[in-house]
Amino acid sequence: MRSEEDLVATMRTAAERAGPRELASGVAWRRRARRTRRRVGAALAAAAVVIVAGGTATVLRGQERQVPPAVLSPVARVWPQAVVKVPVKDADGRQTLPVNGMNATEVLLFAKGAKGKVDRLEVFDSATGRTRVLGDVPSRRPQRFELGTKYIAWFEEAGFWIMPRQGGEARRLGPLTGEVEKIGLTDDSLVWSVVDGGVYRMPLAGGAAERLPGTDGLHLMSWPWANAWAGDNMSRIVNLETGRSSDVALPENVEMMQCHAQWCTGLQAGSHLIVQRVDGAERRTLPDTLLRDGFWWLLGDRYALFRSREGSPFVVYDLPTGTMTGVGEVTPTLLTSSPTSTIFWDADAEYYQDCADRVCVTKSRGGGKEHTVVNLKAVTG
Questions:
Q1: What whole-number distance in Å separates Cα of residue 320 and Cα of residue 328?
Q2: Looking at CB atoms within 10 Å, which of 41, 50, 51, 267 has the fewest?
């Protein structure tokens, strides 16, 4: 069996070689979906849980360059209620990985059995310091987990699955319709979008899938929100419950614009990162310490994760307020459907860059006892 360090290294390599443009948007696969899936699909299936993006590949000579230690104090000072320590192994010796915040104190975990397969879901409660089992995951290659008010859902090649949010037996809903990219949950239905655009619905009680009218070209963000794209920019935000649609105000020479329901971030003129409301209001340029050629990712319902050139390896940025906090060498999960509200890293690990053929890949050694987790649900509820 491969060690956790080997797994992380493999996932990090796959992510870095995919390139920043392909990994920048955590809210849609769009035209890049098939290409990205072919490139990292096999590795994702083997891991069944995460893809690690430790930063952009760096070109330099030599075999190894040390990465500065993570600066943990800023996030602990700014949002102390959000920072918790989660054991890397549960009481049964299964390896765990944080997936998403369920509420202000609970974090959903993947738990991997002896063969490295995700075989059950667990919840760590920071209020009690304890982990409880939700239930077994019978599917072979679970993907794109989503949290609803009543259920947790995911899908695999054979179809969709749901499990009660409070725990219980998983139940298969039905076969996939189209090439599924993201899923969502209402109180009574599973919804999903497909790579070529279009949103579908299937009753949780069972029944046939139906395509939602007026959703041609739309891609699910986080229910009830969907988006449309123009090239590499998100261009329109749609509320699928109300039908209300808002065009994204795209400034000149912007690329890779990605949005929450109200806030967006993108790269302008290839030289600086910007933040704005969907309608273009309150536009501002972000500090040069945030790498424009690096990595950014939407988190929760109002945050973004940026690669940093100074201090902490990564920065969590609150788009509405401009609050910026330093975090460690984060391991973003790519298999949540809505933007995850949880980020984590191993504070005890030493990170370095292993270089070959003029390409350097971030790896780690040591650590392996606990995850340092930031649960953004504890900040905004």
A1: 22
A2: 41
pLDDT at 13: 39
What is the per-residue burial (b if ≥16 Cβ within 10 Å, else e) of 359-377?
ebbbbbeebbebbbbbbbb
* pLDDT score for 293: 61
Asked which of 294-298, 317-321, 364-368 is least confident by mean pLDDT, the reply is 294-298
User: Do the beta carbons of residue 254 and residue 268 sit within 8 Å?
Assistant: yes
Domains in the chain, ordered, with CATH? 4-380 (2.130.10)
pTM: 0.83
Residue environment code for 306-327, b if the CB has 16+ CB neighbours within 10 A, otherwise e: bbbeeebbbbbbbbeeeebbbb
Question: What is the rounded distance in angstroms from the CA atom of residue 213 to the CA atom of residue 22?
Answer: 30
HEC profile of the chain: CCCHHHHHHHHHHHHHHHCHHHHCCCCCCCCHHHHHHHHHHHHHHHHCCCCCCCCCCECCCCCEEECCCCCCHHHHHHCHHHEEEEECECCCCCEEEEEEECCCCEEEEEEECCCCCEEEEEEEECCCCEEEEEEECCCCCCEEEEECCCEEEEEECCEEEEEECCCCCCEEEECCCCCEEEEEECCCEEEEEECCCCEEEEECCCCCCEECCCCCCCEEEECCEEEEEECCEEEEEEECCCCCEEECCCCCCEEEEEECCCEEEEEECCCEEEEEECCCCCCEECCCCECCCCCEEEECCCEEEEEECCCCCEEEEECCCCCEEEECCCCCCCCECCCCCEEEECCCEEEEEEEECCEEEEEEEECCCEEEEEECHHHHC
Q: Which of 48-57, 213-222, 264-273, 281-290 has the lowest mean pLDDT?
A: 48-57
User: What are the pLDDT digits (tens) for 79-94?
Assistant: 999 999 999 999 999 9
Q: Is the pLDDT of residue 50 over 50?
A: no
Q: Report how far apart, in Å, the C-alpha atoms of 190 and of each of 117, 147, 153, 202, 209 are.
A: 25, 11, 8, 5, 9
C-alpha 152/C-alpha 175 separation (Å) is 17
Per-residue pLDDT tens digits for 326-365: 999 887 667 799 999 999 999 899 888 889 888 888 788 9
Q: Tell me the sheet residues that pair with 314.
A: 307, 327
